[in-house]
């Protein structure tokens, strides 16, 4: 969902003077105003919402509406803008620009409630949000059967279990790497690309530019056929399982993530990696300050994987999930952060057998070991596999 307006760039095609867009944008006219739009909202099809957005509505989601005016253009986005925005004079773009002014975005959140909920209650509430968001993409997706991308970890597994409980009309991308064929001398990104069978049938100056600036595109296949992929990105962040989030919460309790994590915990190897340096910028702080720091990080965690006609949709991209997480005690958030307790409970609520497929540890070379061993426990999923 890339744009460059009120200026000129060679990275994007110019659709009319002063406005450059990637593929997939649509147009609409309201009165004498022409609007370009792309993305999705939590209220349904973006096309049905453009008129309301023009008159001031700001539904959640990942979308952009650009108003065309005689003296320039105006960019409209959700209140929590899901992409960075750079400005120089009158030029606005979300394509990374070095040394340009970056316009900040921030979460709109309420004060922390003194009334705490349990992990079980959090699982029920977050499941309802995930189902609502999943149903939205099922109802509004016009790109054929959605494809669930399963990476072996808890974020994608949880979404897969929820999707499977709602519909049989989906495809499964669960590529099991051949561990014996891996060349350990290769760059780690190249290994991951081979794991996920990343293929690109075309490239553009924009694609080459963003591959350098946004890590998520390293694992994105790009071809001419439009497709809607359901992915688990932002799950770590919004559900507070990011290593920095765990560490700042641990410091609020007077300890550290590495001191808390146990060898059998899902996050153990990930947190204990010698190459990963946990945050040492903060001392023990109040709960309010701790959450303020987390909100600051979330406000700058952009993972916008909509490129041309390709959609990478994540039901986790919803501030309401973070609002649920804030209702938990710090002890419960830490338990979930180390073991993915809430997402395991969500899976139990829809189909507990899916938990048999979860990797024992996050992000290891054996991510698919339990999937390979136990996938026959859920026979119908084998028919969904994309070969």
Describe the structure.
This protein is α+β, with helices and mostly antiparallel strands and 387 residues long. The protein has two domains: 3-102, no CATH class; 119-384, no CATH class. It has helices at 46-54, 119-140, 154-166, 188-195, 205-213, 235-238, 243-252, 257-260, 268-272, 287-298, 319-325, 330-339, 341-351, 369-374, and strands at residues 3-5, 14-16, 19-21, 26-30, 33-41, 61-69, 72-76, 86-88, 91-93, 101-102, 147-149, 171-173, 227-230, 310-313. The strands form three sheets. Strands 2-3-1-9-8-10 form a six-stranded antiparallel sheet, with no helix packed on it. Strands 4-5-6-7 form a four-stranded antiparallel sheet, with helices on one face. α2 (119-140) crosses α13 (341-351) and α7 (243-252) packs antiparallel against α10. It is globular, with a radius of gyration of 21 Å. It starts with a strand and ends in a 13-residue tail after the last helix. The model has no long low-confidence stretch (mean pLDDT 85).
Poorly predicted regions are none
Q: How much beta, percentage-wise? A: 15-25%
H-E order: EEEEEHEEEEEHEHEHHEHHHHHEHHHH
Oligomer: single chain
Give the helix/strand class.
alpha+beta
- Tally of domains: 2
Distance from N terminus to C terminus (CA atoms, Å) equals: 29 Å
The counted number of beta strands is: 14
- Roughly how many Å is the radius of gyration? 21 Å
Overall 3D geometry? globular
Please count the helical segments: 14
């Amino acid at each position: 969902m890339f744009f460059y307006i009120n200026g000129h760039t060679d990275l994007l095609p110019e659709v009319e003077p002063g406005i450059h867009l990637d593929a997939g944008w649509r147009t609409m006219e309201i009165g004498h105003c022409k609007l370009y739009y792309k993305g999705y909202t939590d209220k349904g099809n973006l096309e049905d919402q453009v008129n309301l957005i023009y008159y001031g509505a700001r539904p959640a989601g990942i979308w952009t509406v650009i108003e065309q005016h005689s003296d320039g253009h105006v960019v409209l986005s959700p209140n929590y803008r899901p992409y960075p925005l750079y400005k120089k004079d009158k030029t606005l773009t979300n394509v990374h620009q070095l040394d340009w002014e970056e316009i900040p975005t921030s979460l709109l959140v309420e004060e922390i409630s003194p009334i705490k909920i349990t992990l079980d209650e959090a699982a029920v509430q977050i499941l309802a949000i995930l189902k609502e968001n999943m149903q939205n993409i099922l109802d509004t997706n016009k790109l054929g059967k959605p494809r669930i991308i399963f990476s072996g970890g808890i974020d994608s597994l949880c979404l897969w279990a929820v999707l499977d409980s709602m519909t049989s009309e989906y495809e499964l991308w669960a590529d099991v790497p051949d561990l014996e064929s891996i060349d350990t001398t290769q760059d780690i990104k190249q290994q991951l690309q081979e794991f996920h069978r990343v293929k690109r049938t075309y490239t553009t100056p924009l694609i080459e530019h963003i591959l350098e600036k946004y890590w998520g595109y390293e694992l994105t296949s790009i071809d001419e056929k439009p497709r809607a992929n359901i992915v688990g990105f932002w799950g770590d962040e919004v559900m507070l399982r990011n290593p920095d989030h765990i560490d700042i919460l641990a410091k609020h309790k007077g300890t550290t993530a590495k001191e808390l994590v146990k060898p059998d915990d899902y996050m153990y190897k990930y947190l204990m990696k010698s190459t990963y340096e946990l945050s040492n910028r903060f001392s023990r702080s109040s709960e309010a300050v701790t959450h303020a720091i987390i909100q600051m990080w979330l406000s700058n965690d952009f993972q916008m994987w909509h490129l041309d006609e390709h959609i990478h949709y994540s039901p986790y991209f919803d501030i309401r999930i973070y609002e649920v997480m804030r209702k938990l005690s710090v002890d419960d958030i830490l338990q979930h952060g180390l073991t993915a307790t809430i997402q395991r409970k969500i899976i139990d609520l829809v189909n507990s057998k899916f938990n048999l497929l979860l990797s024992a540890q996050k992000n290891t070379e054996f991510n698919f070991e339990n999937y390979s061993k136990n996938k026959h426990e859920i026979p119908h999923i084998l028919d969904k596999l994309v070969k």
